[in-house]
Design goal:
Elements: H1 2-118, E1 125-128, E2 132-137, E3 140-145, H2 149-158, H3 164-173, E4 179-183, H4 189-198, E5 203-207, H5 211-223, E6 230-233, E7 236-237, E8 242-249, E9 264-273, H6 275-279, E10 286-289, H7 295-300, H8 303-308, E11 312-318, H9 320-326, H10 330-339, E12 342-347, E13 356-358, E14 370-376
Parallel strand pairs: 4-5, 4-10, 5-6, 7-9, 10-11
Antiparallel strand pairs: 1-2, 2-3, 8-9, 11-14, 12-13, 12-14
Helix pairs in contact: 3-4
């Protein structure tokens, strides 16, 4: 009876006790889980610290390796630079040795050439070929056209120098490095003297319209080691650009554009240029003109150059027979040069080679043929000519 009375009161107490025991058990499990979580976090922290330590160690090793690699590359670059510098020094030494060898060889060749040229020969005529005769003049070797017997005879008789006075004047007028023009260059008698006097730094422009003579001119410059300083133009010079017929006689050097020369055997079409066109603003020291009566046309094509030049010398052939054939009076011929501000002197070829006589002191009507020096600026501009003026 008593138990029945107590039971309704005990049941709620038992339920509550069960709940308390369940909460206690749950709290115990949570505490265990937290404990495990804390241990896990501690393990992770230690692992992270270990990884950080290892990463730091790896970074230090990488820094050391990078420094080693950089030092190796720097050492290799320094060694390459040292070897390259040594190679450049060896190449410079080799280049200097080669240049010195070439210079010595060139000097020896020039010396040998000069020795050959200055050694007297018993005869000016040395040997002949099918179409040429090899001769020696005072300025070098010459190949003369075999068919021009009068030229060959004159060269043999004169020792290879047909105009010694003009040659002397050319040598007096020019200095090393000068620019000079040879119009009507023929086979190169004066071009040789010009090329040797102007030297390696100088330049000769040689015009010759006759293809046969121009080829011999080219061969003669090469024969005398002057090809590099002589520019050869196969053309006549005139007042304007164009072409014309060159009448060629038995004497090849007397070919003319005037027409109908004595002894004419044929005519050929040749180009004509002007010296102003050829020079393109360059001012030569000397222009030699030998054109068988066409002198005034050549000078007309040189007007711009004459006007621009401070000083200029012209050596011009004076041939009254050519002027008569061209219908030009001697005073008119001389007047054209005077109008350009040029003073003239007659050149002595054989008496006192190169001596100069004022034109007004000579009766030119009595002169068969001569070369005349015209200068711009008077002889005062040419100190080297004072000793030649009479």
């Amino acid at each position: 009876m008593a138990l029945r009375l107590v039971r309704p009161l005990a049941v709620p107490l038992l339920v509550r006790l069960q709940r308390l025991m369940t909460v206690a058990v749950d709290n115990s499990a949570t505490a265990a889980s937290l404990s495990r979580l804390e241990r896990h976090v501690a393990d992770l922290s230690r692992e992270a610290a270990e990884r950080a330590r290892r990463w730091d160690a790896l970074e230090r090793r990488l820094d050391q390796l990078h420094g080693t690699v950089e030092a190796s590359f720097a050492a290799a670059a320094a060694e390459r630079s040292r070897r390259w510098d040594a190679l450049e020094r060896r190449l410079d030494q080799l280049h200097g040795t080669v240049e010195a060898s070439f210079a010595a060889a060139a000097a020896e060749r020039r010396g040998a050439t000069e020795r050959v040229l200055t050694t007297p020969l018993r005869s000016a005529v040395v040997a002949g070929g099918d179409d040429v005769i090899l001769m020696r003049g005072p300025d070098g070797w010459l190949l003369a056209p075999r068919e021009d017997s009068r030229l060959v005879a004159a060269l043999a008789e004169s020792g290879g120098c047909l105009e010694p006075g003009t040659r002397e004047l050319v040598r007096a007028l020019l200095e090393p490095g000068d620019l000079v023009v040879d119009v009507g260059a023929h086979i190169g008698l004066h071009s040789l003297a010009m090329g040797r006097t102007a030297g390696p730094a100088g330049r000769v422009v040689a015009l010759e319209p006759n293809p046969r003579l121009a080829e011999l001119l080219r061969r003669n410059m090469a024969l005398n080691d002057l090809a590099e300083r002589v520019d050869i133009i196969v053309s006549a010079a005139g007042a304007t650009e164009g072409s014309g017929r060159l009448f060629v006689g038995e004497v090849l050097g007397e070919g003319t554009l005037i027409g109908d020369p004595l002894g004419e055997v044929r005519s050929i079409e040749v180009p004509i240029t002007t010296l102003d066109t050829v020079l393109r603003g360059r001012c030569p020291s000397l222009v030699k003109i030998d054109v068988e009566g066409m002198e005034l046309d050549v000078v007309a094509g040189l007007r711009a150059t004459i006007a621009a030049a401070e000083r200029l010398a012209l050596i011009v052939e004076f041939g009254p027979a050519h002027l008569r054939r061209a219908g030009i009076a001697i005073p008119a011929w001389l007047g054209r040069f005077s109008a350009l501000g040029l003073e003239g002197w007659l050149i002595d070829e054989f008496g006192q080679p190169g001596a100069l006589t004022p034109l007004e002191e000579r009766d030119l009507s009595a002169v068969a043929s001569a070369n005349v020096l015209f200068v711009k600026g008077g002889l005062a501009a040419w100190p080297s000519l004072r000793r030649l003026a009479l």
